[in-house]
Amino acid sequence: GQQLNQSPQSMFIQEGEDVSMNCTSSSIFNTWLWYKQEPGEGPVLLIALYKAGELTSNGRLTAQFGITRKDSFLNISASIPSDVGIYFCAGRTSPISSNTGKLIFGQGTTLQVKP
Amino acid sequence: DTEVTQTPKHLVMGMTNKKSLKCEQHMGHRAMYWYKQKAKKPPELMFVYSYEKLSINESVPSRFSPECPNSSLLNLHLHALQPEDSALYLCASSQPTGKGNEQYFGPGTRLTVT
Known about the structure:
The complex is a heterodimer. Chain A is mostly beta strands. Chain A contains no helices and eleven strands. The mean pLDDT of chain A is 93. Chain B is mainly beta. Chain B has no helices and eleven strands. In chain B, strand 4 and strand 5 (44-50) form a beta hairpin. Chain B is globular, with a radius of gyration of 13 Å. Chains A and B meet through strand 4, strand 5 and strand 9 of A and strand 5 and strand 10 of B.
């Protein structure tokens, strides 16, 4: 079946550092989404990407839809303690015009930030 | 407003109990989803409703029974669950097609089966 390989699995960084994580697949995706989940809460949508090569920012977060359509990355600049959580990538292989597609999730990147 | 609400927040039930989880959204979305999530794992899709009709059932055991009474509400009826069904149950909603396919999640119901 379709799989998303998300890396790294976990990161422990110092406050102020930049963070980068990515998702790759052998399949072509038409949509990439990045979510953050904090303990005891549901995933919160951070960024949505719909076109190959698209680069989108949301505050200190920047995500890109890979040119090959088989990968995406998320960068967090100048990390702060509240960035702690699990970050999931999710992708959809079906066209955005289709109502039958499912989201495929990566395994998540656990981020810990040391003040 | 991108809010999806879920009740209850926590639920403890025995293996012979019958209970229901509830989800509500007022974003005008016409697709709603149930996911199951184990600790430190990604959400696993269970059911999808599109325009109030069940469109995807991911081979979920019949002890889980979904219901979509209207476009804003989604229920998950639980009966004769097993301890391994203990998990965080997440509801999500989206528009069925187009860029609105972005899924918005609720806070989840933490279910413990004893």
